[in-house]
Design goal:
The chain is mainly β and 357 residues long. 4% of the residues lie in helices and 49% in strands. It starts with a strand and ends with a helix. InterPro entries: Quinoprotein_ADH-like_sf, WD40/YVTN_repeat-like_dom_sf.
């Protein structure tokens, strides 16, 4: 089947392995061809999210009950204190935390054993063999084997950055972690600065304010907000991103000389589409980025494919229909299929061979 369109009230979907999991009202289930096989039905509203490896975390919002679903065995795992929120797993070792206590624990799921506990809340982010915590002006690194602090990086910037004529000066603050590449942790700030920090010492080794070829008419802003949507291609060692009619990339083997901006307005206008779907990092596979153009409410919206190598848009959903998606909630790509959830709760699945037809 080239195209599957499932009409219902789907709030979100999660792709893991070869499977698609759906939140449908009070039910959480797995997609089997065109039917949803319920895995659990709750009495209250709940949220669900993908965790590293093969787990999905489900939280009953009102009862404050947590569930951990193992996608390999298609079973729910019991025995975890449901006061904690799951944030990381590596080889069945779970890092969990609870803001209200506050506490942070490390739990071995296989041995049913508590490995360590800290009497404070840490919003861990996991990359490689390290755990990190962000607090606007600082970044802390922790050892996952014992929860002890390894180092802390502080931004310590007294300087304010110019946002352009008739706009106020802005402070720099750490926004999020992009990823870890060859012992350098890359983070992006609220102003779009890319910072490279050594994971061994916590020392800043790179500070890229803007692409080196930004247009002269932009002025001396030293701000590139678009970079907040950056991601890393670990195989090629490249940071890249797309936003509206701008594409950028940076070779991490020589970042200071390769951070470049590309104006892709011509190809956007040719295909009548721009990357305006906010709230999600780039969805990509190999050299292709799958992006969305969000319109107001449930107005017709569109998805497209941008090729990083040619820097051209190669396909848009207009080729199928100009009224295929009623707004956009989420897009994702896996197993040669593009998944699009619109604002009417309809999930559309397009096979890759159909996109190329």
């Amino acid at each position: 089947m080239k195209r599957i369109k499932l009409k219902n009230d789907y709030a979100t979907f999660i792709l893991l392995g070869n499977d698609c999991y759906l939140k449908d009202g009070f039910s959480f289930g797995i997609l089997k061809i065109t039917e949803i096989q319920p895995l659990i039905v709750l009495e209250n509203k709940f949220r669900c999210e993908k965790v590293d490896s093969h787990y999905i975390y489900i939280e009953d919002i009102y009862k404050e009950v947590n569930y951990l679903f193992d996608t390999k065995s298609y079973s729910f795992i019991n025995g975890i204190d449901n006061r904690y929120m799951l944030i990381r797993d590596t080889n069945s070792v779970l890092i969990l935390h609870n803001r209200s206590f506050p506490e942070t624990i490390c739990y071995d799921l296989t041995k049913k054993k508590l490995l360590w506990k800290k009497d404070f809340y840490i919003s861990f982010f996991s990359f490689g063999d390290f755990l990190f915590d962000i607090d606007k002006e600082s970044l802390s690194c922790y050892d996952p084997t014992n929860g002890n602090s390894c180092w802390q990086f502080t931004l310590n910037e007294e300087r304010k950055y110019n946002q352009g004529e008739h706009k106020a000066l802005a402070n720099n603050a750490i926004e999020r972690i992009i990823g870890l590449f060859e012992n350098t942790l890359w983070v992006v700030t609220n102003l779009g600065h890319l910072l490279g920090i050594s994971v061994e010492t916590g020392v800043k080794v790179y500070h890229l304010t803007t692409p080196i070829n930004i247009p002269a008419e932009w002025g001396n802003w030293e701000i590139f907000i678009q970079a907040q949507r950056s991601t890393i291609d670990y195989q090629k060692g490249v940071i890249f991103g797309i936003d509206n009619n701008i594409y950028w990339e940076c070779d991490l083997n020589n970042p200071e000389e390769t951070y470049l901006y590309y104006d892709i307005l011509a190809t956007c206008e040719k295909h009548q589409i721009k990357a305006t779907l906010a709230g999600y990092l780039p969805v990509w596979y190999d050299d292709e980025i799958f992006f969305g153009q969000q319109e107001w409410a449930k107005d017709s919206s569109f998805v497209g494919i941008f090729n990083r190598k040619t820097r051209e848009i190669t396909w848009t959903s207009r080729e199928i229909s100009s009224d295929l998606f009623k707004g956009l909630n989420k897009i994702d790509f896996a197993n040669n299929k593009l998944y699009v959830l619109d604002r009417e709760g309809t999930l559309t699945i397009l096979s890759k061979f159909h996109l190329e037809a």
